[in-house]
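ok so I'm stuck.
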Amino acid sequence: MGFEEVLAWTRDAIEVYNFNRPHPIINMLTPDEAHQVSGPIKKLWKNYYQLKLLNRESNKPFEKRRKKRFKGEFMPSK
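replied:
not stuck anymore, here's the structure
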């Protein structure tokens, strides 16, 4: 695979990512659609750093829940 082929493939991948693929983290919009929205977009991610700071202020231990892969399925950690 030559440089030009890799460059074309990369451009295609970026176009699909930005214009065709909806992202669950930005309320199922494509990045292009998200940039065109006026007003706030419902963000569906958790800011663990902010949670850590809030827990530190309230003297509670910080707990980050991770999903563990178990036999091909995601199992919540205890």
